[in-house]
Structures
1.
Amino acid sequence: MPCMGRLDGKIAVVFGGARGIGRAVVSAFAAEGAAVHVADLEPLEPGAEPAGSVSATRLDATDPQQVADFVQHAVTAAGRVDICVNNVGIHLPASVVEATPDDFDRIFTVNVKPAYLACHHLLPHMLARGAGSIVNVSSNGGLIGRPADPLYNASKHALIGLTKSLAVAYAQDGIRVNAVCPGSVETRMVRGDLTEAEYEQRVPQLVSSTPAARVARPSEVAAAVLFLASDESPAVTGAALPVDGAKSAGVLTADRYRFDIEVNRHFD
């Protein structure tokens, strides 16, 4: 008898699922038996989906009509959507003085509006069924203050506020809403245009303020999303789960804040 996947028979939509953390979530969901509908501006990166099925639609997740059409298509195709993951986001490494009003509008439009639109269009379907799990991808910048990217962090705080408010509003209706809050993760947002050698030189700087002294893999964040999305966490709602090597848990001793820290390779 074949083993049951943790998401067998589930229908999931993943906004921002083409690459990085979102792509890892898509692969994890499909491997656990879910049928996954992906929405992203970019084409889906190649990946292994050994169990479930994956379909991809290229769209602008900040456009209300495109999101409405995508949700309706997903609901019509299977009769329901069980899981929604909101992973659309960009970074803005600029101070409040440096950032322009246009920067402010763009960071909130890209980092918050897609999650609002997805919830706005999906919640009526979930409410009609009395079931659903929504996971928003925030950041540890949504849990703590960080001086280098305050507007990005403000947008990620907003996502956590949305998460908690929706969790309280719909808990009695059988709908759970949670967030994951990654720290440094090995994605294009972190790597940028660096060569492999340049990236390896930068890693000690990236982890200098992280107690675990390592950069996480996208698959590790996906594992947290999978737990929150699955039926393994029926009493978990309104959570903002850090996946950041304890960075948001507190401060380190002064001697640890240095750029020549030895990178933790225990998990490699």
Note: The helical segments are 20-31, 64-78, 101-111, 113-129, 150-170, 188-191, 196-206, 218-229.
2.
Amino acid sequence: MAERPIETTDFGYADVPRQDKARRVRGVFDSVAERYDLMNDLMSGGAHRLWKRFALALTGLRRGARALDIAGGTGDLAIGLAHQVGRQGYVVLADINSRMLQIGRDRLIDRGLSGMVDYVQADAQHLPFADGSFDCVTIGFGLRNVTDKQAALSSMQRVLKPGGQLLVLEFSKPLMSSMSRIYDAYSFRVLPWLGRVVAGDADAYRYLAESIRRHPDQETLLQMMRSAGLEGCHYHNLTGGLVALHRGYRY
């Protein structure tokens, strides 16, 4: 009897067994967790804060609402969500990586927000929440690291309340070829160097650059969201398409 072929998925430019990707991604973020926020500022020139602020401006959340931030890492979006929903509301910061989640929890405690947020170690593909639990779900720069992105989108759609919104903030495809050339040179020369000098891990940031190139472009991700059952889907290109914010609703 012929052996069944091993199912593979992307890990940067490499194809690895599907069951192995989560372990490899965990290793990347275990390595860079302590310097993650500093590296984000250096890599983007602080622009990641503006991209996240734009996403938060579109949540539509009111006091008392319920929000979930998936792959929330060190808590940038969760902090904004907590301010929006207030102490009457409820925010969950979820991440598959325990070290990133710990750093996020410590940041929120330092800001006096710990009592407003719960922390859950969770896989985006199999969210441990009841159907219709949240008014808004966000995921910022995390979807590209998920093994089965379609399953994750379906899981996010499931936990939204009717009328609830999903916001996916992620690196995407630049709109101009000239920008793509500059972006490639920066990604594959400067980022690994920064990773080595600042975070002590050039390979981790080489993976992150490669994972961006393997991530679905704007239109492909839009169709994936629709396939997950989300409606009213559209996106906003930011910084010439280097980043895109996709939005969809559960009606």
Note: The beta strands are 8-11, 14-17, 66-70, 90-95, 117-121, 134-140, 160-171, 231-238, 243-250.
3.
Amino acid sequence: MVSSIRTWKSAVLKKAVLWMRFVACLAWAPLAFSQNVTEISQLRAERSANEVFVAAKVAFDLPSAVEDALLKGIPMFFVAEADLLQERWYWYDRKTSSVQRQFRLAYQPLTRRWSTKLSSGAAADSSQGLALSQSYETLAQALASVKQLSQWKVGDITEVDPNVKYKVEFRFRLDLSQLPRPFQIGAIGQSEWSVQAQARTSVLPELK
């Protein structure tokens, strides 16, 4: 009799454990599928004379939280950064230059149009240097301009030794520090607000 009770209790306990695991999987599943994946789908660095130019494409789906904020009139700032590095076998790679571009993406509820503004330099210096604005009818069109860079000069190569190799480290991210303070508090540390990726590539030799 005692043995039967123990067997019954063991079976009930196993079923309870399996049920708890199943419920936990259901609870975590929406979180796993809601995570935004950002990747550098294309990255190319080419040399023309002593100048290095980068072309890149970033692939990501705009998180729903970010899109909701945009529709409420809150602009978003995406930042692209590139470092030109000289490879050194005997020590760490030497950074020879570092550049940054900022993309401001915004929605105008009155006109129902999207706009982007491209600025060179850090956020604090966005009023200096290159500044290009453009208007779009849809969010997809505006995002397409943010996700792609071409013929971006990232630095100069002064070494004439053909044996010296260079590479470019490219980074792309949504800059949460430029959000209004209430949004920063709710967004920082939340995976649904995460849009960031990085990649490296070698600088192709100059075509003769």
Note: Residues 2-34 form the longest helix (33 residues).
4.
Amino acid sequence: MFINNQIGIGNNDLQNGKDLEYYLELTKDFKSSLPPFKVKNIDGFNIMDESVSCPVGYKARSGEFLIQKLKSEGFTEVVYVQPRQGFAGISLSWLCKKYDMNLTLVMPSSKQVSDHQALCIEYGAKPLFLRIASMPNANRAAKLYAEGGSHRAYVPLGLNHEYVVAGGVRAFHDFFKGKEHPNFMWCVISTGVLLRTMQIALPDTNFKAIAVSRNIQQGELGKAKFYSYHKPFLAKSDVIPTKFNCEPCYDSKGYDIMTKEGNEGDWFFSVAGDAPVPTIDKTKINSFREWGDHFDFDVEGIKI
């Protein structure tokens, strides 16, 4: 269903002289507030389970360095695009609340917000709704909004940012320092930030990546072996683990493939479990916009 368009084994985060030492130097003074990764042996596989060690998933762990750096650089507001499904916006909402930063999320218009979007709003994010034909349109609107204030920092989709990669590299490097590195590591891939991060921190490990949401472009896969899941992004996996909390539309799909194609002793990275259920009334959030209705942005003085 999903296509690998990459030629070769390029890693977008290892360009322009960047390497493991570059990212370690960048984060040499970084102190994470989160506990180390939790590893469980389940049916012969080593599961790195972020549902246990990170309240809202791995992206909060890797994104913490980003928020600390943006705040130290004088930014007071983060701008991001939050689709109907995805933990990046949830993680940013949690982090911005923790570090007293404002967060604005551009959200695709819909008759009713999703649980993930509602949770972001519950954590304090300000939504800007926009009817779009594709995600690039939402990203363009988010960039325009961010450019409207020097205190605003735009973060690309998937938290595809150098500071996020650096935070993740530091986390994996420190966790496996002095330990035997995995021979085979499995994970799902969307924008590939996690996968490329792990490859930088664990250069001798063999990686296997399962695409679950989009086609993979040049430099996103690195040296990993590519697999594609046979269901669309918002459909649940055929197999959902029962021995650990694993998001049914995302990591569960990778776990399904690993249990069929992997071997005993292989590692699997699970970025998050099921997100908390929002307590706010979704019906009271006015999320529907007609085509050409840019009201949320007009109020801010931003012309889309």
Note: The mean pLDDT is 96.
